[in-house]
């Protein structure tokens, strides 16, 4: 395994692919590998790209990858599709990508399928991003389907988060309802050549002008304990970029916006704060998974089945059942 | 508080609303109330309604509520919108609903806003559903934005899950990518009067004919430990219903499908299995939240900040940091 790490660090793609699989599977060897790789991390610009299905996110991610390549930067792509446990979605996306980017040694693409649980997916995504960071990819694009809170969580651990909208996806209220605006560093209206694009831009602009919404959302408990919440950055006003990903229109301007945001992060100290947020989120997620696994292991199948049966028979309510279980178990 | 419970059980709507707020806020009184109410639960038919933004879910839920009322059944509606921490989305949805259902004492509507964390939202949703079940609502419609894994988790704890699609939301691949098919008991193609509806129906039919996908998705660890995974029901083939929610077209047929599914659940023993799944998911979620809260409390702000700083400085990797933290803390 340590040989695999060495090979991956020297640019061996096959070793990298095997290493990522190892890391995804999350064993003792994976932790050792990540521990060795970790000091090499911290150099990549991690860019989250999120948006509802049908906004053209994947095409946009491809165009961004090509544009970064043209600038000489290497690009890692992590496509997270937590709602697709059967391979269809992810594989198809890969095949489309392949056509444009296949054979370019400066691009590495990985699709993340379901990892059995939500925490598992967030864990695996963070770990894979760290591997790509460690082996030297300059930009890492993390693509998520952004209509769910979990995907938002994954996206917001990036340095820069793009929220992609498109005209004509239901009425405008839906754009607001999708409600990922407050995590956007850059708003992208893709398919900007379509009818209604200007309405989408205006609706978003109006939202932004109404003032930044109170940032009250979905902070992890660890972030709250660590006092990382409430320090939202006021120095950056999310720009709205219009693109037509299928033709590449607007992509250079979007690249400029991303570069501007990176410069802002570096100058304002926000980069450092986001690194802390990311570490806090990752620690909390790992702790959660470990604690529940340890506890369920202690409880055991028989006792768990018994308590589930009692809850189903309405002999005990779930909250009281949890109290009783917690009183019975040992320290992790 | 016990008076509130009593009043709610006798049908006092104002007491019910206050009780639900109490339960949402999750204190010691909330647990006592839930414990008292719990023996009264288990009678409602819990129907999850999920689908991407723009499919017309909310309108469909209203039509279903009206149809149930016409049959004499009482209806609770829980609208979960985890991506909208600022109130806009949920409130607007409520106002639209109000127009049709306001003043009907047989309907109770509650929108669930963000509860600070993902686990918090799932916890609050489960608790509110239990309150509505306990006070006697016959049918509880739980509406979620179904493009994310967390929302899917919430929906799948229902007895019957409707997955709503609509024509023209990006290409057909998106429908597959949305990938919530495997949790669907009933597929609904809403906006069936629109161009392309027949293509959406055919694409879904094709997916179903390709055979049920392997049910490998997103099981909680508790479900796995309890051996509840892998017992998927083979006796039910999800029907595809076409509706035009805005005109009510197709809603009677959809009601028949839901009634058929309920009868199937009762006859096949699947109802009991779903109750066990639901209890397992709820226990696991509560345990997770309690464990992490206890742990973070023990660690304390200072030590947590310190370890986060060390991770950010690359002095320790996240997995090793978690190991170290777990070695230092006491039993819950």
What would your notes on this structure say?
In chain A, strand 5, helix 8 and strand 6 form a beta-alpha-beta unit. The longest helix of chain A has 43 residues, at 270-312. The first copy, chain A, contains 13 helices and 7 strands. The first copy, chain A, has helices at residues 2-9, 13-25, 28-37, 57-70, 88-101, 118-134, 149-155, 172-178, 197-209, 221-225, 251-268, 270-312, 318-328; strands at 45-51, 75-80, 107-112, 139-145, 160-165, 186-189, 240-242. Residues 84-92, 171-178 and 213-217 of chain A have low confidence and may be disordered. Chain A folds into 2 domains: 1-39, no CATH class; 41-269, Rossmann fold (3-Layer(aba) Sandwich). With 332 residues, chain A is of the alpha/beta class. In chain A, 54% of the residues lie in helices and 12% in strands. In chain A, strands 3-2-4-1-5-6-7 form a 7-stranded parallel sheet, sandwiched between helices. In chain A, helix 1 packs across helix 2 (13-25).
Could you write a compact summary of the structure shown?
Chain A is of the alpha/beta class. Chain A has 13 helices and 7 strands.
């Amino acid at each position: 395994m340590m040989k695999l790490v060495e090979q991956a660090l020297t640019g061996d793609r096959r070793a990298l692919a095997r290493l990522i699989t190892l890391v995804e599977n999350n064993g003792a060897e994976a932790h050792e590998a990540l521990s060795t790789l970790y000091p090499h991390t911290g150099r990549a610009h991690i860019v989250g790209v999120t948006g509802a299905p049908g906004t053209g996110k994947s095409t946009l991610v491809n165009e961004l990858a090509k544009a970064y390549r043209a600038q000489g930067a290497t690009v890692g792509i992590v496509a997270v599709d937590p709602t697709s446990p059967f391979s269809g979605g992810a594989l198809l996306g890969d095949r489309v990508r392949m056509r444009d980017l296949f054979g370019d040694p400066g691009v590495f693409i990985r699709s993340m399928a379901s990892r059995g649980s939500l925490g598992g997916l967030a864990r695996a995504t963070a770990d894979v991003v760290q591997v790509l960071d460690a082996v030297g990819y300059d930009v890492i694009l993390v693509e998520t389907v952004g209509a769910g809170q979990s995907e938002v969580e994954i996206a917001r651990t990036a340095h820069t988060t793009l929220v992609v909208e498109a005209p004509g996806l239901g009425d405008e209220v839906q754009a607001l309802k999708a409600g990922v605006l407050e995590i956007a560093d850059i708003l992208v209206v893709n398919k900007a050549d379509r009818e209604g694009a200007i309405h989408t831009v205006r609706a978003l602009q109006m939202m932004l002008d109404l003032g930044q919404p109170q940032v009250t959302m979905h902070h992890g408990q660890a972030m709250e304990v660590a006092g990382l919440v409430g320090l939202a950055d006021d120095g950056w006003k999310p720009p709205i970029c219009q693109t037509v990903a299928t033709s590449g229109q607007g992509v250079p301007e979007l690249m400029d916006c991303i570069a501007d945001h990176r410069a802002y992060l570096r100058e304002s100290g926000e980069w450092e704060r986001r690194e802390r947020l990311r570490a806090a989120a990752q620690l909390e997620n790992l702790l959660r998974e470990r604690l529940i696994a340890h506890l369920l292991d202690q409880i055991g199948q028989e006792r768990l089945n018994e308590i589930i049966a009692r809850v189903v028979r309405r002999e005990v309510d779930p909250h009281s059942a949890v109290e009783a279980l917690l009183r019975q178990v040992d320290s992790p």
